[in-house]
Amino acid sequence: MKKTTMKDIAKAANVSVATVSYVLNNVSNQTIPDDTKCRIIETANKLNYIPDLAARSLVKQKTGLIGILVNRTENEGFWRRHSNLELIDQLENYFTNKGYHVVLSSLDATNPNINIIAERKLDGVFLIDVKNEQFHRISNQFKAGVPLIVIDSFIDDPLFYKVVYDYEDAITKAVKIHSQDCHFVIEAFNNQETIEKIKVFSGVADNSIHVMEHEQGLVRFLNQHPNKSVIVINELIGAIVSKYVNPSQLVVICTANCPAILPVQTTRIDFGELKSSAAFHLMMQLLSGQRDIPHDKYIRVKAE
Question: Among 29, 35, 40, 112, which lies 20 to 30 A Cα-Cα from 187?
Answer without folding.
Answer: 112
